[in-house]
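<instruction>
Derive structure tokens from the sequence
<entry> Chain with its tokenised backbone below:
===
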Amino acid sequence: LRKFTRQGNAVVSRYLDERSSSMRELNDVSDSTVTRLNLFWRNITTLQSMLYGSTPRIEVSREHADPDDDVARVAAVLYQRMLQTDVEASGEDTPTALKSSLQDRLLPGLGICRARYEYQAEITEVQTITGEIVEMEQILNEAAPVDYVHWQDFSWGWARTWSEVPWIGFRSWLTKDEVRERFSDKIAENLEYKNQLPAGNEKNNEGLYNDGTQQNNIQTAELCEFWDKSEKKVFWWSASAEIILDIVEDPLQLEGFWPIPRPMTANMTTTLFEPTADYIFAQDLYGEIDVLQTRIAIITRAIKVVGVYDAGEDTSVGRMLQEGQENQLIPVDNWAMFGEKGGLQGSIDWFPVQDVVGVLQVLQGVQQRTIEQLYEITGMSDVMRGANTDQYTSDGTNQLKAKFGSINIQ
């Protein structure tokens, strides 16, 4: 997953407009003074708003709508109300987790959320039918919260498709007290604690906060939680320890064993289960737009009223632009000699601004056509952006374009 991680960090840097060396390498741009037109940020924010606008509404219905099956009908209503309560903001913030995983899908190309099972119980004494007093565990409270998993904290075994994945892993960062509470004092003393970086670790930190100033000031231990589908076991392991920290037999007893659904992955094939970010397929166009924007910015700065004149002439020619104001005349010494040389036309030679403006207009036209090609590749049409076509386009054509845009979003 090294290639995927490196590209993912570069795509996130592009979204945040980070001017890093790896980003220039990705876009084949060597000049650090490049001027960008960050359409990638605009496209991602537009897609985020369209794909997730509000908290999902839970809908539970019967598989067979039998008229006399009141038990199934009432059970569906009960399940719907309980699940709707779980996803609302009364408990764990499920919408925030889903929005974060959606952003990971749109940027690096991998979005994950996982479900946990939590419960509180107490031991109570219960009298059986025979009169014997036994101790039983009584559940007081239980919940299944949804957690967001960072795209770099998720790993999996080699496979061509999701059904062939042999194991999956979740990386977490725990303080010494948290390790002691979860495992034991002995394990807490033997683990290595270090400052966490936004990109995970030093190996994956290329192109994102590579100056080292954004590291966590609290030292934590890096632990991995592996779910092995073949053995139906969960292992906890750390690179800084020589032993397996813990082993649990199938803790959730789920039908598919995994604690997650199939992750949201971008541009998958049946050759290898490895996502590829959407940005990779349009990076040449994004880079070309940046190159054109840089040239437009340079030429725009070059467009100015400037010229040359003979230094031996009267100083009034140079004073004309420096001191001249509205409705003000500047006196000229030796007017007769000034007129014999053709006046201003014979004394000043202006910079050919019209030629530079012509080049600027050509660059702007090429850039606009490149942006249109980018919209064709990414599917961001004018209708999806809220713009309308010209007044002569029929209403049926506009509805057809809107329908295609909706299909693309779905």
